[in-house]
Design a protein that fits this description.
24% helix, 6 helices
């Protein structure tokens, strides 16, 4: 069993579901979400803390996950966590590609990249910064803002990504009312950034 997990034939699936992407560049698009259990970052404000302990999620064959994903009308899959790159994703990505699916990764960049991705959303965390290799690969940089001082962290990461990377500041949900005025003012003064809102929470969908 462990060897199959290590090779990527099995993955600790926290949940999978068909919904509308609520954040970042692809907000509003239908996609099938594959959320893996386990995280090596552990942000205090995380809204998916239930995923942190991978032992809570028995390994599931990737064939079962893919079979559910391909039944959906959208040909898009979002791989998220936790931190999905704690596991080898080559087999999952290869089989999804063989089924004609487009693959979007959401990661902190704390672990080496595995698998072929069409889009990488890098969401860097100060307590466990991204590996240097992720910055040129990022399609989208999404920095979570808990207060005005986080703007410095956002700019630190902006200087490392490529020129084609889309830049987003996203208020931490529990502090959104407090930090939104700061984000709005900052983006007006620094228009290379855009705002990302967790629209799925406003419209009450997964």
């Amino acid at each position: 069993m462990n060897s199959l997990l290590d090779e990527g034939h099995l993955l600790p699936l926290a949940e999978d579901f068909y919904t509308i992407q609520g954040e970042g560049y692809h907000t509003g698009k239908a996609a099938y979400f594959i959320r893996l259990g386990g995280c090596d970052v552990g942000c205090a404000w995380c809204d998916s803390k239930f995923t942190w302990n991978p032992k809570l999620f028995p390994p599931v064959p990737v064939t079962e996950i893919i079979a559910r994903a391909v039944k959906c009308a959208a040909r898009a899959v979002v791989i998220t966590g936790g931190e999905p790159l704690l596991y080898p994703l080559e087999i999952l990505c290869k089989e999804l590609k063989n089924k004609g699916m487009e693959i979007f990764l959401e990661t902190s960049g704390s672990q080496p990249l595995s698998g072929e991705m069409d889009w990488i959303c890098l969401s860097p965390k100060q307590n466990h910064p991204p590996l240097p290799e992720f910055y040129p690969l990022a399609s989208e940089l999404k920095v979570i803002i808990t207060g005005p001082l986080d703007m410095e962290w956002a700019e630190f990461n902006r200087r490392k990504v490529g020129p084609q990377c889309h830049l987003y500041l996203q208020p931490e949900w529990s502090r959104r009312e407090a930090v939104l005025p700061h984000i709005i003012s900052y983006i007006k003064a620094n228009p290379s950034w855009k705002i990302s809102l967790q629209t799925h929470k406003y419209i009450n969908i997964p």
